[in-house]
Amino acid sequence: QKTREDAQRQLEQAETTNFPMYVAMLCQELANEQSSQYTRNAAGIALKNTLSSSEASRRNEMIQRWLSVDEATRQQIKQAVLTTLASSDTRAATTAAQVIAAIGAIELPMENQWPDLMKNLLENVTTTNNSTLKIATLTAIGYICELIDPIILAPQAGAILTAVVSGAKKEEPNQDVRKAAIDALYNSLEFIRDNFEREGERNYIMQIVCEATQSSDVNVQVAAFECLVRIMQIYYDKMRFYMEKALFGLTVLGMKSEDERVALQAVEFWSTVCDEEIELANEALEASDAGETPDRLSHNFAKAALPEILPVLLWLLTKQEEDADEDDWNVAMAAGTCLSLLAQCVEDAIVTPVIPFVESHIRSADWRFREAAIMAFGSILEGPEHKMLTNLVNQALPVLIDMMKDDSAQVKDTTAWTLGRVSELLIECIKPDEHLQSLVSALVLGLRDSPRIVSNCCWALMSLSDQFGSRESSLPTYALSPFYEGIISALMETTERSTNESNSRTSAYECISTLVQGAALDCFSTIQKLTVTILDRLDATIQATNQIIGSDERHAHSELQSNLCSVLTSIIRKLKQEVVPFADRIMTTLLSLFTSSTKHSTTLEDGFLAVGAITTAVEADFVRYLDAFAPFLYAALSNHEEYALCSIAVGLIGDICRALQEASLPYCDTFMNMLLQMLQSPILNRNTKPA
């Protein structure tokens, strides 16, 4: 360990004291065929990391540092990494491709820097039978296309396209070369617009990609379908001919593939078609409202393909795995998303063909078919006219409520999601006297279930609150009033779970916030009791701050404090002047929270929002707290790296001055000085400054 740390220190020192020698040494190691794979790869990654950074300020510094290296050394490094593309060590060759792209990203935007790079790369692909060299070169081209502004690369589009097409065509015997070429084509699609305008070139590109979907190599198939998805995003207007000739058939075939990766991309293709056509429909509506003609027209691909793709999507919905991880995107999830987009795209046309599937399978003995039927039903609720759906939802509601008791966790999960969709989109179908008691009971029961089900039950309850309640004003009573205390109690019980799996605890706190925001006046006594409980919990987290061990525990602790602050903010905003009796206790707790938080804590942001709400509620009386709060406010205004916190702090100055009026004058000089410092700060995010 000590030897490694010493070596690390020496390398860092070399980078600082003699950068040209340092990068030359790293390049020499990367190019050394006698060195181990590990050493070569480590040297290459270190070299790349001296040239590129995701931070803009660091990137400019790195560009200047590289350009300050003498021309001879830079030329030597560039030649060495180009040579390394042919290395039999494939990891070294791939790392060299990354280095080439990093240098290219610096030099190609500049006049007369590395002018022969693309010519050299093109020769590597078109004049050699060395597959390793071809793959690494195509990988380098792909990285270059990914990193560099399309406008800069546009003059090189012809050379890039020639290289890519040479490797991607079906005559290429090595499928790894073909895969690398199609990946490079994917990255180059933005700046070959001129080529795509020319029908002959466009036809050739489309032919090559379509042929690649039929490769014997699954990796090539997946890459080709990914390419088609991107082409549809960028060149939708040009796709009519290809849809009619090939893409309908190829993508439906792809959706039926036994390999899930292929099926996922083929489904994604149709999701992309729907996305584009939903956007075009919105543009047409806006143009119509303005009395204008839309710039682009929809080809209605989704509507034309509905009879072909809908049966496949419904079949794919039944392909769930018993123990599927919710974080792993699978073909059943993709099909559900695509079906939802399809409903928004084709609107009323989706209803009639989907309903028989729902009716046939909602009582199936196989949980997969029950779940698929409910997913299909939930997915078509947005898009069609409400009158097309009202009777169906009225019939389905009692069945769905009953299915919250299903033996299958997956069925209950999807049922809770669908009930949330009904609550959000078709609230008129939920009759308070007829449905609400059984619906709320089913959702509250679901709060005791697995974390995934909890999250969807919370969302459904939030939707009910949003639809029946009012955030702007407090009604005397509302539909959820009879159940309000019971729902809050069940949610608070849910938040006591030790983990936040599937975001369940956060969802429960968000649900409490939403219920508070929409509450009627006859729920205020419950909210006042809730205030004390939330403050007690926040105090307990503050006392536990010093017992936190490890970054995961710290993150969970910070997240819990943020959740509690968010609920507190909702309570203050809802109760308005009625929160005054709690104001001293609230500010005491918040000041303790700020004392225990680090300056980078997101908890500070949520705590500051609560303070902003208090200033509005207590108005001029806030002066009693300002001396104690001011140091935390000043620290936030000076913390220019944390621009979100800075922005909230600026808003707080406005809240305080509005609330205190003339009583804020003693603080205004400091406020103004700090605001001026922010305007002059080179590191403060520009969104925090005025336009």
From TrEMBL:
GO CC terms of this entry: cytoplasm; nuclear envelope
Domain (Importin N-terminal) ranges: 7-87
Subcellular location: Cytoplasm; Nucleus envelope
Major site of localization recorded for this protein: cytoplasm
Keywords per UniProt: Cytoplasm, Nucleus, Protein transport, Repeat, Transport
GO terms under biological process: protein import into nucleus
Family listed: Belongs to the importin beta family. Importin beta-1 subfamily.
Keyword Cytoplasm listed: yes
PROSITE patterns: HEAT_REPEAT, IMPORTIN_B_NT
Organism: Funneliformis mosseae
InterPro entries: ARM-like, ARM-type_fold, Armadillo, HEAT_type_2, IMB1_TNPO1-like_TPR, Importin-beta_N, Importin_beta
Single GO MF annotation: small GTPase binding
The HEAT repeat ranges on this chain: 396-426
Protein's recorded name: Importin-95
